[in-house]
Specification:
CATH architecture of one domain: Alpha-Beta Complex
Helix content: 10-25%
CATH class of one domain: Alpha Beta
Shape: globular
Radius of gyration: 30 Å
Largest sheet: 4 strands, antiparallel
CATH topology of one domain: paralog of FGE (formylglycine-generating enzyme)
Structural class: alpha+beta
Length: 569
């Protein structure tokens, strides 16, 4: 009997414990629900009932297709093992890089051909308004020619033949690479809206013609969805559900009519815009110093994208094979027949070698890659050590006299002629027109004073002897590199005329010069070091420079859900 009584008491205690836990959980749930109320006291339920937007359960940013997350951190930019040129071009500087996404491999011929085919279809060269658009995006296939070589077969086949479909695209200029990134932003977000049921699949609709300005542009959509297709709402499906209830007695919408609302940035549905990585981002991702990390310190130095001081594989099965595709020596691009060192005499298909610690392929070797920065010999660490980038031109949307945002039409597209004679469109029809911010826009700002900041601290007025003079007071911008010579005296008055030499100085370093990083199939081992940097005018192309895209990481810098406190335990 005593045992039965004890068991009954135990069951009762378990029951009471369960009840107490349930009450506490309900209390916590009520506390959490009450915390959902805004500072005005309006809960999500109140907002929804009144037709206002409510908070969304945004989990986390989705990793874009073909990309990997590069968790940001601090690293030493520059810091090369060897500096045989002794040009102070890679002086070590400490930098902080924010988290971002980067393509795991270079853009391939196959991916770039989709871009070309889309341009040719939407902007047919036979139309006089668009005659230069498609051609401006075509890579220079003649980069394979050599006056003392026979590579004509590559000029005809490398870009378009399926044998090279998964090889990195080359012959692209910095300008072409940047514009591909913009186009990719539109196509990715177009697909997202189609999958969400907001936008119809434009190329599959018989009543819709995708041509000229009538195509999807994410910037135009965010600015004003009615600007697309001249306000033709048939391009949309029902849209996202709205909280506003239909009034009694109002006519029911017709079948297929747009009745919801459009996607906003606050919905967290649209993908961030794609771009070229900055030099700091690219080098940080290539070095992948995380594999040399010990707690919060980096032990040792990395010479390549992989760990170790040598370019050959140490594993038993692949011992002696090269870890990247590069030029072994004079006249040696692949090794001896039957025992090829890197299995390639020119480029090779992407992902042919093992990735680095971040999961990125070919950050050393195969092709060098364009990055976003304008080239200067020195990284100005004193100016900025956080997400460093040189090349900013701050702009704003152009507003017409009626107060409306200006969209570029088929008849208003403008063209530029590059130094090499190539004609390119400034912007594509269907995109929003941007203009540089004015000094009035930047008045009393502390972080910038003007739109054009490409030559900040190295070429602008503030970096010349006229640093204390206003630009409006000068007839022309002074030259940085013309030094003074002996003054000329006028008469006996003692008046001196200050003079400067008139020697013409030529340099490849200009505001149009862009950085490219990494070694290639055409480079010796020295250039495989991610810290090394070279430059080329933005309108030039070679047979050894390709590119990959980047996009920003939004929200927390890591996908790790632990709090900063729990991380340190």
């Amino acid at each position: 009997m005593q045992n039965m009584e004890i068991n009954r008491i135990c069951r009762l205690l378990k029951y009471l414990t369960t009840v107490v836990i349930a009450v506490l959980m309900a209390s916590c749930s009520n506390n959490r629900s009450s915390s959902n109320s805004s500072l005005t006291g309006w809960t999500d339920k109140d907002k929804k009932a009144a037709g206002f937007s409510t908070s969304k359960s945004f989990n986390r940013q989705q990793t874009p297709a073909g990309m990997v997350l590069i968790e940001g951190g601090t690293f030493t930019m520059g810091h090369v093992q060897d500096d045989v040129l002794f040009d102070w071009n890679t002086t070590p500087v400490k930098q902080q890089v924010r988290s971002f996404y980067l393509d795991e491999a270079e853009i391939t011929n196959s991916e770039y051909l989709f871009y070309l085919e889309w341009l040719e279809r939407v902007f047919p060269p036979s139309d006089q308004n668009f005659e230069h658009i498609y051609q401006s995006a075509v890579p220079d296939t003649l980069v394979w020619r050599h006056v003392l070589g026979t590579n004509e077969n590559l000029t005809e086949n490398y870009l378009r033949h399926p044998a090279y479909a998964q090889y990195p695209v080359v012959g692209v200029t910095w300008i072409q690479a940047s514009r591909y990134c913009n186009w990719r932003s539109d196509r990715v977000n177009e697909k997202i809206l189609v999958d969400k049921g907001v936008l119809k699949s434009l190329f599959q609709e018989d009543s819709i013609t995708v041509r000229g300005k009538n195509h999807f542009n994410v910037d135009t959509y965010i600015t004003n969805p009615t600007l697309l297709f001249d306000g033709d709402s048939t391009i949309y499906n029902k849209g996202l559900p709205t909280n506003i209830k239909r009034s009694k007695g109002s006519a029911k919408p017709s079948k297929g009519q747009f009745t919801g609302r459009h996607v906003k940035i606050s919905d967290g549905i649209l993908a961030s815009k794609f771009r070229l990585p900055t030099e700091a981002e690219w080098e940080y991702a290539a070095k992948s110093v995380i594999e040399e990390r010990e707690y919060n310190n980096i032990r040792g130095r990395k010479k390549y994208a992989w760990s170790g001081k040598y370019t050959r594989n140490k594993s038993k099965t692949l011992k002696g094979d090269q870890l990247a595709n590069f030029k072994q020596g004079k006249g040696d691009y692949s090794g001896v027949a039957g025992w090829s060192n890197d299995m390639a005499d020119i480029t090779i298909a992407i992902k042919s070698y093992a990735p680095n610690a971040f999961g990125l392929y070919d950050m050393s070797g195969n092709v060098a890659e364009w990055v976003a920065d304008v080239y200067r010999p020195i990284i100005d660490n004193e100016a900025n050590d956080f997400n460093y980038f040189r090349g900013n031109i701050f702009t704003k949307k152009m507003i017409d006299q009626e107060g409306k945002v200006v969209m570029i039409s088929d008849n208003t597209v403008e063209y530029d002629t590059l130094d090499n004679g190539k004609i390119i469109p400034k912007d594509l029809p269907g995109s929003i027109q941007y203009i540089p911010v004015t000094k009035r826009d930047a008045y009393m700002r502390r972080n910038y004073e003007k739109a054009y900041n490409v030559d900040a601290r190295d070429g602008d007025l503030a970096s010349t002897k006229e640093f204390n003079t206003s630009e409006e007071d000068l007839d022309k911008k002074p030259r940085m590199y013309n030094h003074p010579i002996k003054p000329r005296q006028i008469g006996e008055s003692g008046l001196l005329i200050h003079q400067y030499d008139k020697e013409t100085r030529n340099t490849l370093i200009s505001d149009d010069t862009r950085v490219y990083k990494g070694g290639s199939w055409n480079d010796r081992e020295y250039w495989l070091d991610p810290s090394q940097r070279r430059y080329l005018p933005a309108f030039m192309a070679t047979n050894y420079i390709g590119f990959r895209c980047a996009t920003d990481r939004l929200g927390p810098m890591s996908q790790d859900k632990r709090s900063p406190v729990s991380r340190r335990r």
